[in-house]
Design brief:
single chain; 205 residues; alpha+beta; five-stranded mixed sheet; 5 strands; 40% helix
């Protein structure tokens, strides 16, 4: 019985030594794979991989904010004059209709140009939501100028409207004279991109 027991103990000891010996290469490999000063590779692999960040669909480039054209591509033209508005209003004044008619005539005669209409306001408005109010008012002013141009034969596909609200005043003083100058729609142009089909020049106008 003693010899049988010793044999069982010897076999168990031999099996244990083989298991330990077989594990040594794996443990050594794990230590070698660990980065210097970091946790062993086994610990890193045991951690749950972080969820990948969800991709943002159609993320705009930094210089291309959503809804804004590349304003630096447009430039002023002396043939295109600004029109001005009464305080808090976006209605084309009778005296400015002639200005818009002249702007429309130039654009019809030069169909290879695109036009950007900027809407501007003075720095007054409702106390609680002044900036939002002026942004909306500036857009309405630019849209009113656009509607007049379209009615005079300028194709709407050539026109972009943009509101700056009170953010880009022409005059910085708090006076009625300055406020009148800041309540305006401004016209800028740029050549149409190569390959773009521009509307044909209207005849008989």
């Amino acid at each position: 019985m003693k010899s049988h027991a010793l044999r069982v103990i010897a076999i168990a000891a031999l099996a244990s030594s083989l298991i330990v010996a077989g594990c040594r290469p794996v443990l050594a490999h794990a230590r070698v794979s660990a980065p210097a000063g970091g946790s062993p590779a086994g610990a890193v692999l045991a951690q749950a991989a972080p969820a990948p960040a969800a991709p943002v669909a159609n993320a705009p480039a930094p210089d291309k904010p959503i809804g804004l054209p590349r304003v630096r591509d447009y430039e002023a033209n002396p043939e295109l004059r600004d029109v001005y508005f009464d305080f808090g209003k976006a209605v084309i004044r009778p005296g400015d209709e002639d200005v818009l008619d002249a702007n429309a005539a130039w654009l019809r005669a030069n169909p290879e140009y695109l036009v950007l209409i900027e809407g501007h306001c003075d720095n007054r408005g409702p106390t609680g939501s002044k900036n939002e109010f002026n942004m909306t008012l500036g857009e309405r002013r630019a849209q009113a100028a656009m509607n007049h141009l379209v009615a005079k034969g300028v194709h709407p596909s050539r026109i972009t409207v943009l509101s700056y609200g009170e953010e880009r005043p022409l005059c910085a003083e708090d006076s009625e004279q300055c406020w009148r100058q800041n309540r305006r729609s401004r016209f800028l142009v740029k050549p149409a991109p190569a390959g773009r089909d521009t509307p044909r020049r209207a005849s008989g106008r």
